[in-house]
Amino acid sequence: MTKRILVVDDQPDLRLLIRLSLRTLGEVRQAESAEQALAMMAADPPDLVVLDVWLGHGQSGIDLCRILRLDPRNDKLGIILLSANGQQSDIAAGLAAGADDYIVKPFSPEGLVAAASRLLAR
Q1: Where are the strands (E) in 19-115, listed by range?
Q2: Which is it for the CA torsion 43, 21, 94, 77, positive or negative?
Q3: CB atoms within 10 A of CB 9
Q4: What is the C-alpha to C-alpha distance for residues 109 and 116, in angstroms, rounded to an integer?
Q5: Name one Pfam family in it (predicted).
Q6: CB within 8 A of 92, min separation 6: which ones?
Q7: Is residue 88 a contact partner of residue 109, using CB atoms and an 8 Å limit?
Q8: Range of the domain at 10
Q9: Is the separation of the CB atoms in 9 and 32 below 8 Å?
Q10: Residue 82 sits in a domain of what CATH number?
Q11: Could you say which DSSP state residue 25 is in?
């Protein structure tokens, strides 16, 4: 069965980089906001969400992560947060919100693929 990955980032160029990096792992869909991501997930739940912490206007990636973790249907959902904020307190806040992994930008595509592979394999 093909794994489904949802990339949520407000920057089109970053969504493209992430999509191209992860395309060998499954079907990669994209959303530019937390609201769009929630609508897409209701219609077709993914196995993994790669989520930017800063999504411009509206809800943040941390907010969306918390919302996703409140829903028991997302118990097996893998969540990777991406952020330019790499302080220990930022990482701790992301993990406390329910993320399985927190990757600091700029990131290595290989590192992202390794983290995504690990979460999709569980």
Answers
A1: 27-31, 48-52, 78-83, 101-104
A2: positive
A3: 26
A4: 10
A5: Response_reg
A6: none
A7: no
A8: 4-120
A9: yes
A10: 3.40.50.2300
A11: G
First to last CA, the chain: 14
What confidence score (pLDDT) does residue 57 get? 80
- Tokens, residue 88: 């220990």
> Total structural domains in the chain?
1
Q: What are the Cα distances from residue 96, in Å, to 22, 62, 109, 122? A: 25, 9, 24, 20
- Tell me how far CA of residue 110 lies from CA of 9, 18, 53, 107, in angstroms: 19, 11, 20, 9
* Token reading at 118: 């690990």
Q: 63-88 in b/e burial notation, b at 16+ Cβ within 10 A?
A: ebbebbeeeeebeebbbbbbbeeeee
Indicate yes or no: pTM above 0.85: yes
Flag residues of the chain having pLDDT under 50: none
Look at the alpha carbons of 39, 104, 96, 5 in this order and tell me if their dihedral is positive or negative.
positive
Amino acid at 120: L
Residue whose token pair is 């947060």: 81
